[in-house]
Write a structure and sequence with these properties.
This protein is α+β, with helices and mostly antiparallel strands and 614 residues long. It contains 19 helices and 25 strands. Among the domains are: 53 residues; 296 residues, DD-peptidase/beta-lactamase superfamily (Beta-lactamase, 3-Layer(aba) Sandwich), CATH 3.40.710.10; 56 residues, Trypsin Inhibitor V, Chain A (2-Layer Sandwich), CATH 3.30.10. The radius of gyration is 33 Å and the shape is elongated.
Length: 614
């Protein structure tokens, strides 16, 4: 009995459902006949229904993301900063009044209304209508409250000073630091917490981790001094036709780097346009002959050897460089640490600079880092310091500045305190190097060196300056490497007659060094991002981006030559070419497919053969 009643109820439900379905079909047919729906409209309804059911096309209105931390100089000027730009995304199937939407959006994004309207009629499920929208444009779009219209954020890194300190700052790609400070302190600048072991030189002040939201870096660099030196040295580098030029300004007592210059340079905003020569690190990798500083070092060795109670002999009547005198010079060269590697806390992957191979009897070659650290130890009382650039880290979550650990950085006493002070006083008082308020030494060397099957020639200039003369607070090392021997160009001869030499450049920079030595430490915390820099960034994106993409596209036309490079450098060179790379072996790249110069229009794979060369 119960079973019969249940069966009867089921039949009634089936009849009702069938009747309802027939009514709906009739209604749909009537509406369809009256509205005359187009194929496109039917397709839109179907896609919208599928999207509602599967929820695969339903976008989420993005919240404001936390961007990469900002890098400041010691005066709180922005060196590297991230901004959010937005892409205007349209889901055509969700739009209703396309003409009205096209009119409203075209006014905001600055595109032709008919062009926008044509894109809104697309059959694609998603259309990117405009790129590089700023925050104000996004607010205007959101105020329209249009269904199917969304703004998708993305992060862009910007370097307001462009090429200034580019070799030190490095660059990023897709939010990851690839070189310089950006790579060295990537855990700090990247969103998310970082711990003590990732930044051992920072004083966490009892905290176990920092950077829950984001963190900013404050460097020891002085941007105004950096720009001034780049301009002055860059002019001399170009006019003299030199191959390379570098400069480094440092506090000899602490190791703080105030400026670091390298020519040729590059703009980290477009780092992919720079070649290997422009991005090469001259401080660690470029080799300079010891002859450049030999007169200055001999003077220092003689003062130290004579001792506190005796007077050093004038440089013009000293014994020649032979026999016991030569051995004595070599002894002090080793003792003062000019051959020692440098603890270089400024670059990822190169914590220590390996000294070049030296001659058995006398040190022949030094890196720029060895030169500046070694000379600084002669005038700071005999202490060998470690150059560094990180001053403070600001944690936005806690709203607090965390300073560098006072014990961080390797310091080594190479000269006893009393002898170190005596050496500094006597050396800085030498008439051949001293001026009224400063100390300046200029050296030049030209030499031809035969190495197995090749002949290498050196033509280099060096300038070492310190201010103030009595007890230097700032030292500057400048070096220029010419790619040819004498005679120089006629233009350079005219400059020499006008006294426009490296010494001339150094003398014009002495007031800036004095000002930097007297500048007080800047205190405070990062404020809002610089509005002028933001506007410059927007202008650069809107005016330079087409040319930027064109240049980048041109570089993709042919396969670059990466044979002989390390795997890391080779992969970096072909980064962005959308190639599937296969690697065989280990060591340096000895063979590549496609071959250098091969058109990449249809290429999708790249095969690299590596081989160790011991």
């Amino acid at each position: 009995m119960i079973k019969a009643v249940r069966e009867k109820k089921r039949r009634k439900k089936r009849v009702l459902l069938v009747g309802l379905f027939v009514v709906l079909l009739a209604a749909a047919g009537t509406i369809s006949h009256q509205l005359s729906l187009s194929l496109q409209d039917v397709n839109r309804i179907i896609q919208l229904a599928v999207g509602k059911i599967s929820n695969t096309q339903e976008p989420v209105v993005p919240e404001e993301a936390v961007v990469r931390g900002t890098i400041y100089d010691r005066t709180m000027q922005e060196l590297s900063v991230s901004y959010q730009l937005y892409t205007l995304v349209i889901h055509p199937v969700e739009l209703t009044e396309r003409e009205k939407v096209a009119r409203s959006l075209s006014e905001i994004i600055g595109k032709d209304r008919q062009e926008v309207f044509a894109q809104l009629k697309s059959m694609q499920p998603m259309v990117e209508l405009a790129d590089d929208l700023d925050q104000q444009q996004v607010k205007n779009v959101e105020s329209l409250k249009l269904a199917g219209v969304y703004c998708k954020p993305r992060e862009e890194r910007y370097y307001p000073a462009h090429s200034a300190a580019a070799h030190l700052l490095g660059f990023t790609d897709k939010g990851i630091g690839l070189a310089g400070v950006e790579a060295l302190y990537d855990p700090v600048l990247h969103q998310g917490i970082f711990r003590q072991e990732e930044v051992p030189e920072l004083d966490f002040n009892g905290e176990t981790s920092l950077g829950r939201k984001t963190a900013d870096l404050v460097l020891t660099l002085d941007l105004d001094l950096q720009k001034n030196i780049e301009e002055q040295l860059g002019r001399y580098w170009k006019d003299s036709g030199a191959w390379r030029a570098m400069a480094l300004v440092m506090e000899p007592a602490s190791g703080k780097i105030l400026a670091i210059v390298s020519h040729p340079g590059f703009d980290p905003n477009y780092f992919w346009q720079a070649n290997e020569q422009a991005t090469r690190d001259q401080i660690l990798q470029k080799i300079y002959l010891a002859d450049l500083i030999r007169p200055l070092f001999q003077q220092a060795a003689e003062i130290y050897d004579t001792g506190i109670s005796k007077q050093a002999l004038p440089v013009t009547i000293r014994a020649p460089e032979s026999g016991s005198y030569q051995e004595k010079i070599q002894k002090y060269w080793q003792q003062f640490g000019l051959t020692a590697p440098v603890a270089w806390q400024c670059k990822a992957g190169s914590e220590r600079a390996t000294p070049p191979e030296n001659h058995k009897k006398y040190v022949e070659k030094l890196s720029g880092a060895q030169l500046v650290v070694g000379l600084a130890s002669l005038i700071n009382g005999g202490t060998r310091v470690s150059p560094y650039v990180l001053e403070n880290v600001y944690d936005h979550d806690r709203g607090k500045m965390y300073a560098r650990n006072a014990e961080a950085g390797k310091r080594q006493r190479v000269i006893p305190p009393a002898e170190g002070v005596h050496l500094r006083m006597k050396l800085l008082a030498e008439r051949m190097f001293s001026r009224k308020h400063s100390f300046m030494f200029v050296g030049r060397t030209s030499r031809v060196v035969r190495q197995q099957e090749a002949t290498v020639y050196y033509n280099q200039e060096l300038l070492f300056a310190a201010v103030p003369r009595e007890k230097p607070k700032v030292v500057m090392l400048m070096a220029v490497d010419h790619d040819r021997l004498y005679p120089l160009s006629p233009k350079m001869y005219r400059r020499k007659r006008n006294d426009e030499t490296l010494a001339y450049v150094g003398r014009h920079l002495l007031p800036s060094l004095t000002k930097a030595s007297e500048s007080p430490e800047v205190t405070g915390v990062p404020l809002l991002k610089n509005e002028k820099n933001y506007q410059r960034f927007l202008i650069s994106r809107r005016l330079e981006q087409p040319a930027e993409h064109m240049l980048f596209a041109e570089k993709q036309h042919a396969m670059p030559d990466i044979t002989g490079m390390s795997l890391r450098k080779g992969l970096r060179r072909i980064n962005g070419l959308n190639l599937e790379v296969t690697i065989q072996g280990s060591g340096r790249i000895v063979r590549q497919e496609p071959a250098p110069g091969t058109a990449l229009a249809d290429a999708r794979t790249c095969r690299l053969t590596l081989e160790s060369r011991i």
